Amino acid sequence: xxxxxxxxxxxxxxxxxxxxxxxxxxxxxxxxxxxxxxxxxxxxxxxxxxxxxxxxxxxxxxxxxxxxxxxxxxxxxxxxxxxxxxxxxxxxxxxxxxxxxxxxxxxxxxxxxxxxxxxxxxxxxxxxxxxxxxxxxxxxxxxxxxxxxxxxxxxxxxxxxxxxxxxxxxxxxxxxxxxxxxxx
Length: 184
Known about the structure:
CATH topology of the domain at 3-129: Aminopeptidase
CATH class of the domain at 3-129: Alpha Beta
Distance between the termini: 35 Å
Strand content: 25-35%
CATH superfamily of the domain at 3-129: Gcn5-related N-acetyltransferase (GNAT)
Largest sheet: 7 strands, mixed
Order of helices and strands: HEHHEHEEEHEHEEE
Helix content: 25-40%
Radius of gyration: 16 Å
CATH architecture of the domain at 3-129: 3-Layer(aba) Sandwich
Strand order of the largest sheet: 1-3-4-5-6-9-7
Shape: globular
Low-confidence stretches: none
Number of strands: 9
């Protein structure tokens, strides 16, 4: 990007089918392979394989109360996430996932902006009372990042989907998820 583009504001919008190739490329670059190691969110040391694929992203874009949120600056894709409204025990909950920041931009604040916008959408547009997410329990620095933004560890653990290559190919046998939650 040039200097003028670097100073342009970050804008948010919902993804469309035309964005799917860029979303898949961004998510893969943030989590898998050598490129991901430029950032601090990489999973390349404990997972190989894909993080997402075009069909999965298309499914998220096409569901009701589901949005793939894009953050752009001067047309360049900086960050994305998936948010969805779920109902549990008669309450509307937001789910936050597929959070990916361009590895060369991590630590620059765009992730905080996207998380805040996702929480705003869940709270204001969908009347959600809580945002939840699942994080791999060995991701201490990532969990700490979310805790600094008000998320708490719930102690609710979910198994990693070993044997399902859609979620990656594990390099270790101790992976599991924990639900993090924040009251909105």
